[in-house]
Amino acid sequence: MDNTIVVSTPPHVKSRRTTKSIMLDVIIALLPATIAGIVFFGVQAFVLIITSILAAVASEFVYYFIYNGGFTKKCAKAKDVCVNWLKQFDFTSVVTGLVLALIVPSTVNWYEILIGAMFAIIIVKMIFGGTGRNLVNPAAAGRVMMFLSFTLTTYIATNFEPISLDSQLFTGATHLSGWLLGGQSGARMDWLDLFLGTGLAGCIGETCKLALLIGYIYLVARQVIKWWQPLLYVVLSAFLSVCMAATAEGASFDISLFVDYALSGGLMFGAIFMATDYVTSPKGIYGQIVYYVLLAVLTSLLRFYTKIEVVSFVIMIVNLIVPLIDTYIVRRPFGYRREKKAKEGK
Fold first, then answer.
1. Distance between the two ends of the chain, CA-based, in angstroms?
2. What is the C-alpha to C-alpha distance for residues 277 and 274, in angstroms, rounded to an integer?
3. What's the pTM?
4. Cβ 266 vs Cβ 315: under 8 Å
5. Which of 45, 124, 158, 273 could cross-link to 141 by cystine, CB 3.0-4.6 Å?
6. Minimal CA–CA distance to 174: which of 242, 257, 106, 94?
């Protein structure tokens, strides 16, 4: 009798839902933001999105091919390795490539997004064991690497029309950067423009909040994410940012700034599509609450003191703390019921 115990990666849930189906749902939820980005920023955005996705998928395949001996014995196993890769392909690399493309400006060079996608897949994901084993969100790590390695500039998106080469160019991450530098006296955009993304300097998929909201509703309806998770992050971060702004010299508490902070930068995109990543977020409900509170606190603090967009940095930092959260905030076992204490009289 074979007494071998097979240990697989969690969660051990018997369900029709698979990683592939979840990733397909995420891709569908990202389509509105992708379409809006292409409409705003034109063919430049389209080229970057395709390049990023192809680079991410190709990087995963090449690593898998080499790691599983595709080149051994004059590539004798090449066919079997390719077939096995297709069988295990779960679209996580497609999601990583798409998310990375949507959180960078349309002015990024094709080779920069290529390097960023390769870094996200090979260094952040595959070296640590592949799907389900990465320590931080690969797209966030790729974005941070590109931010530190290259000069990122942004165009203004105007009137839902493809952008032209003579459009106004900004050095910086988003409209949020210049607005934070100006403090409360800085230029404030119309809330409708912030919501629709028109007239807003930003990254490809972060500008149109309407498109992000559609994706959020889809993910909640499909039960891919919990409705309160992005909401807690965005609301708490915006409120704390208002409180921090009130501490500046000559400033006062202005609750109307709440909308500006909530709709500016990559906060909504990060909250919906990056912070909710299953692999790099806590498993228990109480751990998740701590996780999103930490994200909100760090985002508001770093936005206030650095005057730049920091969502990708913050997500990476808190991702590294997740193992500690899962260790010290222990989940209640499935089916557990607390024993009732016997009354002293009995």
1. 51
2. 6
3. 0.86
4. no
5. 124
6. 106
Number of domains comprising the chain? 1
Residue 340 domain-assigned (yes or no):
no
Edge-first strand listing for the sheet containing 153-157: 169-171, 153-157, 200-201
| pLDDT tens figures, 205-249 | 988 999 999 999 999 999 999 999 999 999 999 999 999 888 876
Contact 219, 29 (CB under 8 A): yes
CB atoms within 10 A of CB 304: 17
Residue 183 within a domain = yes
User: 169-171 and 200-201 as β-strands: parallel, antiparallel, unpaired?
Assistant: unpaired
Query: In sequence order, what DSSP letters do the residues of 275-317 get, joined into one string?
Result: TT-STTS-SSHHHHHHHHHHHHHHHHHHHHHH-S--HHHHHHH
**In angstroms, what CA-CA distances link 300 with 170, 178, 201, 293, 297?**
23, 16, 20, 11, 5
Number of neighbours of residue 243 by Cβ within 10 angstroms: 13
121 occurs within a structural domain: yes
Segments forming the whole domain that contains residue 262: 19-328
Distance CA 91, CA 99 (A): 12
DSSP 168: -
* Interatomic CA distance for residues 272 and 276, integer angstroms: 6
The neighbouring-strand residues paired with 158 are 161
Helix %, strand %, coil % of the chain (to 5): 60, 5, 35
